[in-house]
Amino acid sequence: MPDNCPCGSNKAFDACCGRFLNAGQQAATPEQLMRSRYCAYALGGHGDYLLHTWFPATAGGLTVEALSQRDCDWIGLTVLAKQQRGDKGMVEFRARYHDRNGHERVMHEKSVFQRIAGRWLYVGGEVNSSTA
Hints:
Blueprint: H1 18-21, H2 30-43, H3 47-52, H4 64-68, E1 73-85, E2 88-98, E3 104-116, E4 119-131
Antiparallel strand pairs: 1-2, 2-3, 3-4
């Protein structure tokens, strides 16, 4: 596991997103959940966590196996905006990655989150991708 958290917080992985991915703690905010999900994608092998934190009605036919695949190299995360009102939340971010051909790309997403029974879940998002 990495020393510094891949989410860009400048914290140790175990003290940041590792506590959600590996120690079973629950994210207290939509931003914590979004950052930990970014780490799950960046590291690969955490499809169980991604599926467990996905709102069931919008998870569709996703599988642990498919979500565990690491099909690009995530290289940076920038949080642009965040909002929480009661049990609803939104995080807007840009994530940089290298695609399979080594080209740098940027994914811009406004993610929507819902807290159910005290647990934040990813509902979906508005996604735009572009070249860096």
